[in-house]
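Need C-alpha cells for this chain, all 140 residues.
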Amino acid sequence: MKQTFKGGVRVIPAVLIMTAIFLLSSRTSDELNTFLPWFQELFPQMQSFDWGHFIAYFVLALAFDFGFGRRAERWPFKALIVVLCLLYGLSDEYHQSFVSGRSPDVADLRHDGIGAAIAVVLVALLGVKRVWRRLVALPD
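Here are the C-alpha cells for all 140 residues:
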C-alpha cells in the first residue's frame, strides 16, 4: 500500500503542469502577448515559433517521465509520454476555442510535440540520463 501511494504522489508534478497550461490557455491573446515580447525582440527569426508551447510541453514531458519513474527509460514509455503530451495539447487547443481572442492552431500542437520529443530524447542521453535520474531520486 505504501508503494502505491508513493507512486501516486509522483503524478502530482504532471497534474500541476497541466493545470498551469489550462490556466494559461484560459487567458486572452492580449493578456498573453505581454508574456514574452522581449524574447521575440531578441530573436526576431523565431517569431513564428511558439516558445510558450514548446517550453510548457517540454516541462510536461519531464513531469510525465518523473511520474513513470524507471519505466520511462524504455522507448515505448518515451513514445507514450510524447503521445500523452500531444493528447493533452489537443485538448488544450480545443479548450482555447472557447476563449475570447484565441483559436485552435495546428502549429501550436506541432510545438507541443517538438517540446515533448526533445525532452524525452534529452533525458535518454547517457550523461543527462545519469544526472536526471539522480536529480529525481529514482532508486536502482
